[in-house]
Each structure stands twice: as C-alpha cells, then as structure tokens.
Amino acid sequence: MSDVRKMSEAGPQEVLDLVAYAFQWELSEKNKERYRLLAENSWNYGSYDEQGKLASQIMATPFSVDFHGISYPMAGIGFVASYPEYRSQGRIDRIMARILEDCNEQGIILSYLAPFSFPFYRRYGYEYVFERMVYDVPAHEWADSPKVTGTIQRLPWTEAKDVIHEIYHAMPRHKKGALQRADWWETIKFTYRKPYTFAIYRDAAGQATGYLIYTIQEGKFIIEEWGYLNIEAYHGLNRLIVSHADSVARIIYQPSFDNDIRQAIAAKPMAHYQVRPDMMARVVNVKGFLKDYPFTYQQDGAFAIAIQEDKYAPWNNGIYEVAIKDGQHSVEKVAHTQLPMLKASPQRFVQMFMGYQTIETMVFLEQLAADDAAIASIKYNLPTGKPILEDYF
C-alpha cells in the first residue's frame, strides 16, 4: 500500500501544522482562512508514516492560463514540505509522481511552480521559463512622466476588483502564459496577503484604463502590480508613484519580465536593476499541448518531435509528427518517422515551445538536436515573446 494519499478534507489541522513548521508560517486567523480557501480550491496530497502521521505534503491547484489565445488547464504546485526527520526518504518523489499521474488523467496540460532549488525540480521535468525584473532604487532615481488629463482614485478592493480583473485580462502581455484569474484566487492574492492600496486611472472620458496595487512599508513604496491599457494610463500611474518620492526612501517593483518600457521611454534610464530567473514550468501532456498549440501558420511544413527522458511523465516519451497546412495542424504519436526531427528533453521542450528561448539558440548551445529542415519549419510557426506570469503560488 502506498504511503501517498490524496486528502479528502481540505486543509486539515495536521497540514497547517506542517506548513507552519516548514515555512515558519504564523497561524493567525487570517492565514488559516487564506490557507482554507486555497485548499478548498486545490488537490491536497500527503505522505504518511507507518503510524499514520503526516510526514510530507504538496498542494496542486488547478488554474487556467492564456497562452497566445489558447486556454490551457494548468496545475500550480505549492506548499511542498516535509518534517526534517522524514527527508531523503523519497516521499516528495512519490507525491510528485502521483500528482503528475492524476493531472494527466484529469486533462491538465501544464504545471507551474516556484522552486526552492532549480536542480531539485528539474528531476521532475520542470525548467524555468519565467523571469522577473527587479527594481529596488532610491526614490529620487525613479523616472518621472509627463502630465496627463486623466484622474486617479484610490478605492477599497470591493470597488476596485472588477476594474482590475477586466484590465488585467485585457492586457496583451498577460496572454503569454499568465493566469486567467478566478474570483477566489484574486481574493487570496489581494485581500489576505498584505494591506494593499488600490488605485484606478481613468482617462478624460471617465474610462478606466489602468490600475496600481501597492503598499508603503518602512519607508518603501512597494508595487505589487501595475496594469495599463495604453501609455497615458502608464504615465498617469507613474506620476502617482513619483509623487511619493519625498515621503519614501526607496521604490521597489518586481514585474514578470519580457521587456521593460520603463527603460525604453525614460529620459534617464535607471542604472541599477537586475533580471533573475523566476518560476518553472513543465508540459504534463505533450500531445494535448501540441494538439491545441497556437502555431502561427506562417509556413506549411511537417516535422517530428522526439521527447526523451521524461521519467516522471513517461506517457510523454516518444515521437510526435506535426503537420501544418492551410492554417491548420495535426498531431500524431508514432513509433517511427521519416520527417525532419527535433529531439528534446521535457525541460528544453517547454522552454522552446513557451517562448523562453529560440530553437536556433538552443541548438547552438547543444541543448537539443534538430535537423535543419525541422528548425526551419518550427521557427516560422512559433508565437514570439517571452512568457509572463505575475502570480506566485
């Protein structure tokens, strides 16, 4: 009998106790309620010892993500924890294997997670595809913006949430792998974690076109999220940030990174910032991912993809023939092929097909192998732009 169980009760006390121990989580009533709401919307797994005591646990939360117009089911992995006396016993391995099996059976296509160790999660087929821009600068170094004709109103969450939800989902950058946020998730993200301030920008016609979510703590202006549908909304909200330069010492902002307009339009670009690796992803079901994949159909052609060494999702291993013609494509898993071939591990496959890295660069780095004809067929048919994820779980 396996030591791994899928819990029927969401957020039992034994799980809270392990979470509090492993993450030094204060079990305040607010944190308990936050965890309960998350657990009720998640699949909760535990590994138990011979006496029936919880030793390790992982939470898998079903989400949907928007990837260039395709809505993919995604499982977010979080709260990976073990008591120290049970570590190095393969318990997390067994839970992860069970989660991936269940995700595949439930039609989950992608999975994301925030790693405490990149090498640790690579063993399960994950690789980092998201990056984050980190600004932590003296307030007076933050670039100003010109005046605009709109207005800004600070609102409580209950009044701001519908506007924020609409603008977030309308932004093109959030259609490159970002969450399609449900109401319960927005409640957790914006009401349980910190005492956020919510500012809405409206243009001269009264249309809401931007928002800023932030806190001010210990002399720091910390931007949680900044959304805008046009450059006017960007400038209007940026002026709100700059208006705090005399009352705070530093401005901190860590957005998901694909490019950065702040540097591009600033009269004096900021000298000190960094781009760091952020969250990881894997494809749970390669055939399902390819079947709905948003190829651009710029060039007809056919190629094959061989997935190799997917130990924790062995159903992915094998050869997939992809044929693109007249704005459509088909995918078939085969035993043998004569088509031009791309060979990739699950880690390199997700990096390339989610847009983190180009096929030419990965071939040059010898991270994957591909025939020239396969390279030509693939590179002209993949959507462009690095993936974006503004959420953390």
Task: Using brief descriptors, characterize the structure shown.
single chain, 393 residues, alpha+beta, 8-stranded mixed sheet, 7-stranded mixed sheet, 12 helices
Report on the architecture of this protein:
The protein is built from twelve helices and 20 strands. By secondary structure, the chain is of the alpha+beta class. Strands 1, 2, 3, 4, 5, 6, 9 and 15 form an eight-stranded mixed sheet that branches. A hairpin with a 2-residue loop joins β17 and β18 (328-334).
Q: Please bin the fraction of helical residues.
A: 25-40%
* Low-pLDDT stretches: none
* Quantity of strands, as a count: 20
Percentage of β-strand residues:
25-35%
Major sheet summary line: 8 strands, mixed
Instruction: Quickly give the structural class.
Output: alpha+beta
Question: Which value, in Å, is the CA radius of gyration?
Answer: 23 Å
Please tell me the overall pLDDT.
94
Number of helices: 12
Tell the overall outline: globular
Span between N and C termini?
A: 31 Å
What order do the helices and strands come in, and which of them pair?
Layout: E1 4-6, H1 13-23, H2 29-40, E2 43-48, E3 54-67, E4 70-82, H3 91-105, E5 110-113, H4 118-122, E6 127-128, E7 131-138, E8 151-155, H5 157-170, E9 176-179, H6 183-192, E10 197-202, E11 208-217, E12 220-228, H7 231-242, E13 250-253, H8 261-265, E14 274-277, E15 280-283, H9 286-291, E16 301-307, E17 318-325, E18 328-334, E19 341-344, H10 346-353, H11 359-364, E20 369-370, H12 372-379
Parallel strand pairs: 4-5, 12-13, 16-19
Antiparallel strand pairs: 1-2, 2-3, 3-4, 3-9, 5-15, 6-15, 7-13, 7-14, 8-10, 10-11, 11-12, 16-17, 17-18, 19-20
Helix pairs in contact: 2-6
